[in-house]
Design goal:
It contains 19 helices and 17 strands. The protein is of the alpha/beta class. The protein has a six-stranded parallel sheet with strand order 8-7-6-9-10-11, with helices on both faces. It is globular, with a radius of gyration of 24 Å. It is found in: Cytoplasm.
Length: 538
């Protein structure tokens, strides 16, 4: 549980820009098609042509204190189409035109060499991060094709795709973030960096934080709740029944109030005036000096804000596109598609709360001691809270069969209502833990895994919270950039361009559920696990 700091120690926690964290330390850039015109196998400095606006965009990153690296595949070396000296001359010309870079990472191998550095493998991203004195999770990778995004995500970095005429439509659909050109990508990187910094850091007494939704929603709000806890003497979390188990695992929470909210729950009971009066009384009893109401992009904070006013809460902060009248003191707005943890962190920053230096904005939970299976294992979690995001059982059966055939030990997990599913899937060669773990015990099982294969559902965020790589079988009914497991090594699988994209459908509206049937090849899952556990893609 959160231990309040001793009186007088607040300035060390929220004292301004020098004592708050940044999202990113470095920006890594693909060379051809991102920085300069793509001239195939170029060994001639005279053919170097910077892309429009590249120099000005890079100078803005330098001015913001971000280190810059170039991460580039140069198979022309392996093919003998140019020499290392010719390549160095090209790079010298690029720096003459675009300014100095802090690091260059070059893969000299060809596609069939099986190295761990050639994109889409993550080796060069990790190497660049190490050379720049940071971690991959604190880097942004900007590139123009899907290989750049795969390498970034597999390393745990943020990916921004800047398409060119050679970028395939399916690569654009699958990208976590897309910018029209390099200057626009830089605009977004700097905007995200600034959004989570409190412009006026504050200290507070008792703060009520709210995230009344499912376990995954509570987990992705964890970094923002820790930011509030860094500047508050006491934090009380209001959550719903579906989020209670996740709330109990979050650092920074002193007290939990569980209450279902009929304007939030997906299957709500009718509004009961007596229940609303009782909730208002319970909120009054918290004695909060202020409240920060976290919501998803399609939810409204205003009904609860009204009750909080009636409960006497003096300062209320929330994201609201709707006019709030006198219900909010801090009305915050966020662009569409921002990762949920950053969306919540930006609200905390608008309210005056930021994570202190050294506190990474990753998801985090307190993991209990759990009896783990012996030896290395891969977790397969076939269930999903929303049917449209569930891979068909027969596909999961084939995935487990392929994983075990390639030497992986598989542990199949699921909740009490998923035991028939986990039994069927585990029969293909896995160990069935379906129904045998609560959320806390599941966190322990996931923490011991080498990799987790899961759809876009709560346990994907739990895997991120314990720092385990994720193979994400992601149904595109919601935004991948917004809901992907945050800041962990990741491979996305599934057809991202199906007609249900961004529909928020809870049941698949397309016959045959193509995004997670034809779009998920079990052999591709095996390759993704290999990429995340060895860094090599064959």
């Amino acid at each position: 549980m959160f231990t309040p700091p001793a009186p007088g120690n607040w300035s060390a926690m929220n004292g301004g820009a020098a004592t708050t964290y940044d999202l990113f330390d470095a920006v890594l850039l693909d060379r051809d098609g991102t920085l300069v015109e793509d001239v195939p196998y170029n060994g001639d400095p005279e053919k170097v042509r910077p892309l429009p606006g590249a120099r000005e965009a890079l100078d803005r990153l330098r001015a913001a204190g971000l280190r810059l690296g170039v991460v580039t595949n140069q198979s022309g070396l392996a093919k003998g189409l140019f020499t290392a000296d010719q390549m160095r001359a090209v790079h010298a010309r690029i720096e003459e035109l675009l300014g100095p870079f802090d690091d260059w990472q070059i893969c000299p191998h060809d596609d069939g060499d099986g190295c761990g550095c050639r994109k889409p493998a993550p080796g060069m991203v990790h190497a660049a991060a190490a050379a720049l004195g940071t971690s991959a999770g604190r880097c942004v990778m900007v590139g123009d094709i899907g290989r750049d995004m795969t390498a970034a995500l597999a390393a745990g970095a943020t990916g921004v795709l800047v398409p060119t005429p050679v970028t395939r439509p399916e690569e654009i659909a699958a990208a976590p973030h897309v910018a029209r050109d390099l200057p626009a990508a830089v605009d977004e990187i700097l905007r995200r960096q600034a959004a989570v910094r409190p412009t006026a850091p504050r200290r507070a007494g008792t703060v009520l934080v709210v995230r009344s939704d499912s376990a995954g929603d509570v987990l992705v709000t964890g970094p923002a709740i820790r930011a509030v806890a860094a500047g508050a003497r006491r934090v009380v979390l209001l959550c719903g029944p579906r989020g209670r188990a996740a709330a109990e695992l979050l650092p920074g929470v002193d007290e939990i109030v569980e209450w279902p909210l009929p304007w939030i729950d997906g299957d709500p009971a009718p509004v009961d005036p007596d229940d609303i009066r009782a909730l208002t009384g319970r909120l009054t009893a918290v004695g909060a000096d202020e409240a920060v109401v976290f919501t998803s992009f399609h939810q409204s904070a205003l009904p609860l804000a009204l009750l909080l006013r009636l409960a006497g809460v003096g300062r209320i902060s929330a994201i609201s596109d709707d006019y709030p009248g006198s219900l909010l003191d801090v009305r915050h707005k966020v662009p569409v598609g921002v990762p949920e943890p950053e969306r919540a962190l930006s609200l905390a920053a608008a309210a005056g709360f930021g994570l202190p230096v050294g506190e990474e904005p990753t998801l985090r939970v307190e993991v209990p001691t759990t009896a783990l299976p012996d030896g290395p294992y891969v977790v397969v979690h076939p269930g999903a809270s929303v049917p449209a995001r569930a891979c068909p059982p027969e596909r999961w059966v084939e995935i487990v069969r392929r994983l075990t055939a390639t030497g992986h030990r598989v542990v199949v997990t699921g909740g009490p209502v998923e035991t028939a599913l986990t039994s069927r899937v585990a029969a293909a060669g896995g160990t069935d833990l379906g129904g045998r773990t609560g959320l806390a015990e599941l966190a322990g099982v996931l923490a011991g895994a080498s990799c987790v294969v899961v759809g876009n559902t709560g346990p994907a965020h739990l895997a991120a919270a314990v720092g385990v790589p994720v193979v994400s079988l992601f149904a595109p009914t919601v935004s991948f950039g917004q809901w992907a497991p945050y800041r962990v090594p990741l491979v996305r699988l599934g057809d991202a361009a199906v007609p249900c994209r961004d529909s928020r459908a809870t049941r698949c509206p397309v016959p045959g559920h193509p995004c997670l049937t034809a779009g998920v090849d079990p052999a591709g899952v095996v390759a993704a696990v290999r990429l995340l556990t060895t860094g090599i893609r064959r």
